Structures are given as C-alpha cells and as structure tokens.
C-alpha cells in the first residue's frame, strides 16, 4: 500500500532487457535506503515493484511483461530519474490517498501552462479511463496523489505546487511524455457498479 506522497527521485543506474522482461536498478537517496529488505515493495513511477536485490543505496527489481505493457517503465534509459515511494507502514500519516501501485494505464501530456506561481498540466488518458476521471476527484500520476481540476474534450488537468515540482520528476516533464495513471479505486468501483445496474435495468424498461 502507498499514499501517493512521493518521497523523492531516484536515478536509473542499470537496465537489462530480455524478451518481455526487464531488470531495473535505481539509486535511492541515502536517507531513503534504510531497512531495505528483499521482497519488500517500492513504488517506482507509481508502479509497485518488489525488491530482488540491494546493496547500500542501489536497489534492483524485476519488471514483467504486463508491467512493461501498461506502464512507462519499459521506456526508461540509463541516468533517467524516477519518482519513488517506500511502502506505507501502519501508523504512517496518509497525506494523499490510498494507492495499490497497480497502474491502470498511461496518460499523455498534451499541454503545460506555467506562470510564476502555478504549473498546470493537461493530460489525455485512454478513453476507457475517462469515466473514472471526475472534477475534484483523485488520480495518481507517476505515483503522485493529485486532485483533478477540469475535465473537458477527453482531457483533464492538474495543478502542481512548487513543492511537487521540486520533489518529483514533474519539474522536468514535457509535452508528449507518457505518465503512469492509477485511478481512484473507490471511484472506479462506484462507476462500474452504477453502469452494471443501468445495463441490467435500462431507464424506461418495465
């Protein structure tokens, strides 16, 4: 379980590609590398990955075919920087919203509006994700818990504060980048339940 409060950025230090499989190694900041354990979970760009090996601040993960298909991890290159969050523990403050780290799909950045105090990103998700993206609802983007602003023309926007830009990789994103998207599971459950009910009981039917 994760909270969507990204703890920092990690550098990609090694990648090994095999057929529909990848081994990924990242370097965590020293302060985030305490009490690591093989088999523990860390969210990398919002994707829950299992630690397979570690030494000092270097941590390795196996990335399987479904994860490569759904997420942006397969596009990573050496020296790229990713968002990370260690798994939440009982008693931790939940400052964002509860996340599974199971990425739903990717959304493409279509526009970036910046001024002295604000950064607004517009993103276009897959059509299948749009029913779960509602104004003032929650999404996780590359592991960041964020509140949706507007939804229009099959796109939505988010507003980023300076702290988010400094701590996460959103300070370096550009138009055309594909961002991992995890929709709010409670919203998804409600929308799917209502849709199933309406399909079984069409309006006007007797």
TrEMBL record:
Entry-linked InterPro entries: ATP_synth_asu-like_sf, Lumazine-bd, Lumazine-bd_dom, Riboflavin_synthase-like_b-brl
Signal sequence segment: none
SUPFAM superfamilies assigned to the protein according to its UniProt record, in alphabetical order: Riboflavin synthase domain-like
Cited Gene3D superfamilies: 2.40.30.20
Catalytic activity: 2 6,7-dimethyl-8-(1-D-ribityl)lumazine + H(+) = 5-amino-6-(D-ribitylamino)uracil + riboflavin
Annotated keywords: Repeat, Riboflavin biosynthesis, Transferase
Function per UniProt: Catalyzes the dismutation of two molecules of 6,7-dimethyl-8-ribityllumazine, resulting in the formation of riboflavin and 5-amino-6-(D-ribitylamino)uracil.
Name the record gives this protein: Riboflavin synthase
Provenance organism: Neptunomonas marina
